[in-house]
Amino acid sequence: MTFNQTLDAIRVYEAGKPIELVVREFGIEPKDIIKLASNENPFGCSPKVQEAVSAIVSKMALYPDDSMYKLKDGLAKRFGIDPHEVVIGAGSDQVIEFAVHAKTGPGKKILINSITFAMYEIYAHHVGAEVIRTASRAHDLDEFYALYLEHKPSIIFLCTPNNPTGDSADAADVKAFLSKIDRETLVIVDGAYMEYARYKDSAKALEPKELIEAYDNVLYLGTFSKAYGLGGMRVGYGIAQRDIITALYKLRPPFNITTLSLEAASAALEDEAFVQRCIAKNFEEMDRYEAFAEAHGIRAIESYTNFVTLCLKEGTSSTEVADALLRQGMIVRNLAGYGLNAIRVTVGKPEENDRFFALAAELV
């Protein structure tokens, strides 16, 4: 069977291995498996979220409120914006898909960092757009600007903090960069991990309200999958001026978010204290990862997220390390596919991190 030729350039996105697959492949009991590969909140979601979802389980037979009024209103209050400046997606990656389909296509280009979230490139290939990458690992905004002048991309992606490396650009530098970009270029600021960056260093914090008021070509992305502990519910959002949101809504399918997901995300916004406690614990444990790296002579990229990238020594293979850990029930992310001899480890609970340190000490 023949398919669209654009598929030839697309590689399948590989998510972190699920626990169920490790059980089947290696015969390890589920209780003996620790998953530190997908940047999930190890403490889960707020108890208030569980209560709210349990209370509406009987409504699963009904289509969700497609206006998404409750969640959009909650986000509007959280960020001090208008509900009409919000679009909701099944994860923030669906909002990325809307934006790419709305703005770019054959003969056009997108500009991304050399190492960054893989879905930017995949969605660009969906529509036949060319992908331009920087050479630098970290977001070098001077390099971004030089490539912008050379290629005039229709979309620029800034992932800050960056996935899968964890580094983050200074907010002032991002704003200075945005001020130099023409208003026909859509700049997507992916803030999937912004709750963590904001907590660790206010100089890294980008506020959606400030961005969209100052720059009418910016789309800010956020998600409930990380700090809010709702990865399984698949809820993300985009914030921008109304003309951008209106364009994206033309691509949004009806009922793209489930009834239970909408309720979970709305309830999560009501318990910010829970989120802040989780983030505080995250950085307490992050200190232990940095100490582990130093003790074993490996480099940990300074992280403003809930994961840490450990760059392994020459002669040590990230593929071999990740596989060896997997066979012992420890799931981490091998970054060889990104051109890095490194593993990315989600910061877990203290006892989960203890287990990682014990296993990894024999391998790195």
Automatic annotation (TrEMBL):
Superkingdom field: Bacteria
PROSITE patterns: AA_TRANSFER_CLASS_2
Signal peptide, first to last residue: none
Presence of the UniProt keyword Metal-binding in the record: no
Domain Aminotransferase class I/classII large: 31-356
Keyword Transferase set for record: yes
Enzyme Commission number(s) of this protein: 2.6.1.9
Swiss-Prot/TrEMBL keywords: Amino-acid biosynthesis, Aminotransferase, Histidine biosynthesis, Pyridoxal phosphate, Transferase
GO MF: histidinol-phosphate transaminase activity
Pathway listed: Amino-acid biosynthesis; L-histidine biosynthesis; L-histidine from 5-phospho-alpha-D-ribose 1-diphosphate: step 7/9
Family affiliation: Belongs to the class-II pyridoxal-phosphate-dependent aminotransferase family. Histidinol-phosphate aminotransferase subfamily.
Quaternary structure and interacting proteins, as annotated: Homodimer.
Protein name: Histidinol-phosphate aminotransferase
